[in-house]
Amino acid sequence: MNIPMPANVSTVLPNSYSSTDNVIEGTSPNSTRRTTQGGSPSFRQLRHPFLIGVAGGTASGKTTVCDRIMQRLNDQCVVMLCQDSFYRSLTETELKLAAAKNYNFDIPEAFDQDLMMNCIDKLRNGLSVDIPTYDFTTHSRAAATQHVEPADVVIVEGILVLHMEKIRNLLHMKIYVDTDDDVRLARRIQRDVTERGRDVGGVIEQYTKFVKPAFDQFIGPSRRYADIIIPWQRGDNSVAIDLITEHIKLKLQQHDLIRIYPKLQVIPSNFQTRGMHTILRDRDTSKNDFVFYGNRMCRLVVEAGLGFLPFKEKSVITPAGEPYTGVEFARGICGVSVIRSGEAMENALRECCQGIKIGKILVHRNEKNENDLIYQKLPNDISQRSVLLLDPVLGTGNTACKVLRVLLEKGVQESKILFLTMIAAPEGVHRVCREHPQVTIITSEIDRGINEDFVVVPGIGEFGDRFFSS
Ligand SMILES: O=P(O)(O)OC[C@H]1O[C@H](OP(=O)(O)OP(=O)(O)O)[C@H](O)[C@@H]1O
Ligand SMILES: O=c1cc[nH]c(=O)[nH]1
């Protein structure tokens, strides 16, 4: 597919891209899916493209940051929208003000915010859009528009992107490019003189009168909304770009699987959970740290899993004598840990659910990478319970499927099983979801795959050895 590259809209399309890849079935911007078991909204926000906002002062290097991200994501479909495309055409009166260097181009009102929001919303919903083209010399919108196809990643770049609340609320990742004022002014003079036909005196006058005050009022303060602030003095920061693109790639991997399997839940990632994963996956992490962060991560996965249990409404009276309508936790639940690694998750479950019964299953991987059942000790009335199945690693899915068959033979209803795992390989997700479509899988990250030795990659190593070794 060949899409013309407008001056201020860039697209990168992989050869394999087809617009139907992005069709999102049955969702609206506000839709939240509910599980059949519980009443909690699921973590399925990634059914939409991954939306990134890149803000920062004038000439801070936003476009370069976006270009670097796009280069690094070259196997994904990325589109970039520039806020500059959405400048309003000036009226006759405004044109006179602009000619007299008395028009403010740096405030929110200078932009067609409704149109900008509308275009982002369409892309967000998997639709193509026609982006206006703005002529900086005539201060008006050109007749031609640029057609942009839907994408897996949408980057919205502009000075006020993090200031504009409606847009900000849609973003999955908010980036602020931080560059010293004097560097920005120097770049701005160079750009406006060479590319936009302005004179140096005029650029400095506009900067002092409008650009700097708008920066101080709107743009600088929007830094507080950023997930990541990139220092961009030297025009490069490959560490930040690497961090950002790895995060996006991970999200896109999850994106594909959660489109296919409605029962797969990936807990929302943030830079705390990414930090924990970085420590857990680092082969040089000490045993103490592995246990510490392993416990933290287990707790997060367990808490997330509990959110998918059924509940009943319950009203209570608060100490202020006021009624509070809430919910009551499910009864009739139990845990089952897969020996040995799954036992690492037992503490987290006990900390959340006092006195919960936890059964155990041991399977043994034979030389054909099949699993034999070696040991089981399960609550007698397990068939009446919802089961939280604990195993931190889902690899090929052999172990999980063997254990699930044991539970089903015991009379547990498939739809009442929540499989809690810390990392999951796509192969194991496919296997479990196909063989047991009613089982809910809750995981904190989805890995790239399994290698020829059936090891999850990039993986976390032998979880049991790292957690339990002395
Ligand atoms: O999906 P699969 O390919 O079956 O792999 C996943 C299994 O591998 C790990 O256990 P492991 O066999 O390392 O045993 P351990 O828990 O005793 O360390 C993990 O805890 C799972 O049980
Ligand atoms: O659903 C449940 C059950 C017990 N404890 C919780 O925190 N949640």
From TrEMBL:
<keyword id="KW-0547">Nucleotide-binding</keyword>
<feature type="domain" description="Phosphoribosyltransferase">
    <location>
        <begin position="268"/>
        <end position="469"/>
    </location>
</feature>
<keyword id="KW-0342">GTP-binding</keyword>
<dbReference type="InterPro" id="IPR029057">
    <property type="entry name" value="PRTase-like"/>
</dbReference>
<dbReference type="GO" id="GO:0044211">
    <property type="term" value="P:CTP salvage"/>
</dbReference>
<keyword id="KW-0808">Transferase</keyword>
<dbReference type="GO" id="GO:0016757">
    <property type="term" value="F:glycosyltransferase activity"/>
</dbReference>
<dbReference type="InterPro" id="IPR006083">
    <property type="entry name" value="PRK/URK"/>
</dbReference>
<comment type="similarity">
    <text>Belongs to the UPRTase family.</text>
</comment>
<dbReference type="GO" id="GO:0044206">
    <property type="term" value="P:UMP salvage"/>
</dbReference>
<feature type="region of interest" description="Disordered">
    <location>
        <begin position="18"/>
        <end position="44"/>
    </location>
</feature>
<feature type="domain" description="Phosphoribulokinase/uridine kinase">
    <location>
        <begin position="51"/>
        <end position="232"/>
    </location>
</feature>
<keyword id="KW-0418">Kinase</keyword>
<dbReference type="GO" id="GO:0005525">
    <property type="term" value="F:GTP binding"/>
</dbReference>
<feature type="compositionally biased region" description="Polar residues">
    <location>
        <begin position="18"/>
        <end position="43"/>
    </location>
</feature>
<dbReference type="GO" id="GO:0043771">
    <property type="term" value="F:cytidine kinase activity"/>
</dbReference>
<comment type="similarity">
    <text>In the C-terminal section; belongs to the UPRTase family.</text>
</comment>
<protein>
    <recommendedName>
        <fullName>Uridine kinase</fullName>
        <ecNumber>2.7.1.48</ecNumber>
    </recommendedName>
</protein>
<comment type="pathway">
    <text>Pyrimidine metabolism; UMP biosynthesis via salvage pathway; UMP from uridine: step 1/1.</text>
</comment>
<keyword id="KW-0021">Allosteric enzyme</keyword>
<dbReference type="Pfam" id="PF14681">
    <property type="entry name" value="UPRTase"/>
</dbReference>
<comment type="pathway">
    <text>Pyrimidine metabolism; CTP biosynthesis via salvage pathway; CTP from cytidine: step 1/3.</text>
</comment>
<dbReference type="GO" id="GO:0004849">
    <property type="term" value="F:uridine kinase activity"/>
</dbReference>
<dbReference type="InterPro" id="IPR000764">
    <property type="entry name" value="Uridine_kinase-like"/>
</dbReference>
<keyword id="KW-0328">Glycosyltransferase</keyword>
<keyword id="KW-0067">ATP-binding</keyword>
<dbReference type="Pfam" id="PF00485">
    <property type="entry name" value="PRK"/>
</dbReference>
<dbReference type="InterPro" id="IPR027417">
    <property type="entry name" value="P-loop_NTPase"/>
</dbReference>
<dbReference type="InterPro" id="IPR000836">
    <property type="entry name" value="PRTase_dom"/>
</dbReference>
<dbReference type="GO" id="GO:0005524">
    <property type="term" value="F:ATP binding"/>
</dbReference>
